[in-house]
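Forwarding these from the shared drive since the link keeps breaking.
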Amino acid sequence: MTMHDLVIRGGSIYDGSGGEPFQADVAIDGNIISIVGDVQGSGTEEIDANGKIVTPGFIDIHTHYDGQVTWSERLVPSSQHGSTTVLMGNCGVGFAPCRPEDRQELLNVMEGVEDIPQVVMAEGVPWQWESFPEYLDFLSSRVADVDFATQVPHAPVRIHVMGKRGVEREPATDAELVEMTRLVAEGVRAGAFGVSTSRSMGHRGADGELAPTVTAEEKELLALARGLREAGAGVFQLLPGAHEGKDPVKEMDLLRRLVAESGGRPLSFTLLNTNQFPDNLDKTLALLSEVAAEGLPIKAQVFPRGVGVLFGLDASFHPFRFHPSYRAIEHLPLADRVAALRKPAMRAQLLSEKPEHSHSTYLYFMAQTPELFPLGDPPNYEPAPSSKLSALAAAKGVSVHELAYDMMLEQDGNALFLLPASNFVDGTLEPVRKMMEHENALISLGDGGAHYGMICDSSYTSFLLSYWTRDRTQGPRIPLAKAVRALSRTNAEAIGLFDRGLITTGLKADINIIDLDRLKLRPPHMISDLPAGGRRLVQDAEGYVATIKNGIVTYRDGVPTGALPGRLLRNPNINVEAKMLHETMQ
């Protein structure tokens, strides 16, 4: 009788195609799925999946593990929630290319944009590279619990070419644009999956200054796109500005020109719904339908719940984080801060103060205290308006800040508040459903590896499966087969990976076995496992029976096995003729 390395018995197969589920066994040999059907042979290891669903491993296409992958072998939180492949280097920020004298500038940008403390990066990032190909060569020596791929980020390219002028957002010269094109093409030929940038005014360095890419002229963005054309491969990812009030028509016209300049390479952009400019969502979706009808490869990355900025005494933000009296005790351990804040005199003093900081985005968040919701256990990501702090305070006859102060000290200072910073307009996720159901939508934006002390959104895969397909009562749900396809095959195809994302013979043995009835999220909590003793939020999920990466079990019942079968992925779609021509010209 044939012996297989691993056999999954009797599960309900959601194969990633979007089709109806079917009962079957799955045999794995090496890192490949060898049989889907009635497996007669035995497995060296067998997993009973009766009553469980079996899905492809999820593809998380919007992460920021650029630093974490250099010091950690577990790409948590993504790997905790069924992701087996991640794409980093998004939003134009990263660590290569980089000369030694420019390292501090990149750390400043990454700290401000992605909330990664500089002390963590200073100790954790080894800087054993200068060029982007050298960065990839370093990553090729790393192992992880998932496969990881990256893109060429705009900010390091700009600073590498322009130095201080790039940091100060001066216009690039024609010669500098040519060099940017060369660097993008070089990175993609070496294995990068594309190029990324950001036009968001909210993206600022730790000093409060705009990130280097934000005000770049169109000709500079076109120069990046030409790098994809020259390499004959890669995708373009960017964060545009329609959610901040920029004209959606002009933004989409820019995306069209970028696709044309890249030679028709795929492009995806972040699509958010905000309270400040809610009408821009429908306008953008209509424009997205137009480009879909024209066959242009432009897709929107959407997030399946409110982008969750978490406030708490042990998080990066809380309502009194930048009050002068709090700054005097912020260095203390949590228990000591709680003790100090419970003193009536301290309470009175803090409630009389106002936040002070040079970073306008930070001050914006401090002004959002009335909009906070208690997160709860289990976490509630579609809370009723009556549970907002402003409503709770009015019902109690106290000020919002008095209530926030007292609630912040609950659970020994571990209580968390949720600020749905976008995608929760009018207190409903219905606009999010509209975004997710668009034919050119990609479900992503978990931001794993970033926002360590304020956002823990890589759990979106578990949320999509548990809430949107099973638990939601405030409106229509999403079919499970469609949700699985969105998390697997759709995202794989979007970045040019065709060897995974489906449960079918001959493809990568990246698989999740999930007890859907038990699947649920726990509240995020803080752990201290970063370099220099840095801390970060993680979020556990119940219901994952097993996660399999390259044929090897990496998680059992939500607990890591210690196996590290993940490796660097280099772009498999490089235009061979273009690469050979380039090498001949060198």
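-- next protein --
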Amino acid sequence: MTSSSHFPSPYRDTRRRSARTRLAALAGTGALAVALSGCGGSATGSGDSKPLALATMDAVTSIDPAGAYDRASDTLFTNVYQSLMAIPPNTATPQPEAAKSCGFQGTLKYVCTLRSGLSFSNGDKLTAADVVFSFDRMRRINSPNGPAATLSALKSTTAQGDSQVTFTLKQPDATFPQKIATISGYIVDRKVFPADKLITSAKDAIGSGPYTLDSFSKRKAVLNPNTGYKGGHKPENDGVEIHYFTADQNVAMNAQFKAKKLDAIVSGLTPGDLAGYRTLDNQGKLQLISGAGSEIRYLVFSEKVKPFDKVQVRQAFANVVNTASLTEKVFGRTTQPLYSLIPQGVAGHLTPFYDDYPAPDTSKAADLLKSANIKAPVPVDLWYTPTHYGPTSKQEMQIIAAQLNKSGLFDATVHSAEWDTYAPKALTGKYPVYAMGWFADYPDPDTYTVPFFGGGQVIQNGYHNSQLDKTLVPATQRQPDRVKAAALYAQIQKTTAQDVPELPLWQGNQNAVAQNDIKGLEWTLDSTSMLRLWGLSRGIS
């Protein structure tokens, strides 16, 4: 059973949908996909020296690629640092970027040859030694907020001369090219970056990407075109300013956009914002752009905290929470309920949480608690972070708490902490039940499984299942035919619905609003969630 016939479809910008659908279909062809990786889409150049001003409610964790694994930080990484390979818009196939070529030699060696003449923005030559340093450094630092865990299959990285790099794997990983093309593969200057700690100053954020990071604060990042950049992402603008807003600044952010002090809002739009902008879009006063959504929101249960070490308690919780009602109350038709950690639109998606928990069942939940010798009501501390995941986070947790308390089986209390405090505790399972969000790092179901299960866990909530860890997840990585891997992903999804280490809540689209003269934004809203700044420009409205 699939969910598409049972649940409301996400909001779409119907006035522009047909044109975008044709563009997306064309972008799937090899020729156009490669072309778009170079030009960034339909941008035609800005024609002035005024930087683009973008707004977001996503909070940056780190400006160091070894220290963050979130969308806001990755926006800086994608545009300031190069990776050996890159994924063009609307395709799953990595293309050479800092590399001239990359490919497998057998199943355990992946070899890349660098482009000639590469250099960092400070003039330092970029060589194979910098690539080796970057990967070794990320794994050595092993930041709890960073992406090192995604490289669990990597055994070693070695340089052959200045231009060739060999990655030796412990076991086959068919998605390794996609990983080093995204969050896990950014190259830093070994003469600037310390080998054992993260940088914190923008002056040290030396990369070889299409932009330099001129300055950074919690309120604003300023990026300027890198004049020495050699690659396929030449900027179509004269620089970009990213303005960071918090959830309580939603009104101010929208006011600045309506006053044309901002060129675009790329994240943080509420359902109410979208409704208002849809009307203005239909009147031709601005652009409301929607793209395929890879964003999911879910609750994590820490098995390090009693009584959530008992599967019956987690199953009882899942039998009480009504995700369809939650989604409708908070988002209307702008998101949809999620019934698996692998969302709709990703190969292999099923709906096992709908199959196992189709509707709230208090009687079944009570029986589960009784079987575990757990007395009701069960105290539950529900944690969320108020800024990092947008302005609806508080309302979501309040609705879930109300559902739990209404059942009489749980006594839920809502707590919050800002991301810099929240992330270290959440990622290491210090909170009993807590909300997390996820975006695809690359267009493959692997990005929704490896970070949660097996040796590459990013969310260290104490959950382990030997069949998942030792058999199913490794088997998906060994399978080069991703269609044939679907049966394995089906087993993974069914197992997680039974064990409930996480409870999926909803899946969202990507929505952005822009002034009429902004071009190229639609090419940034694909399943990778990568904000490709180089393809944006200011044209004629």
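Residues 393-407 form the longest helix (15 residues). The longest strand covers residues 287-301.

- D.
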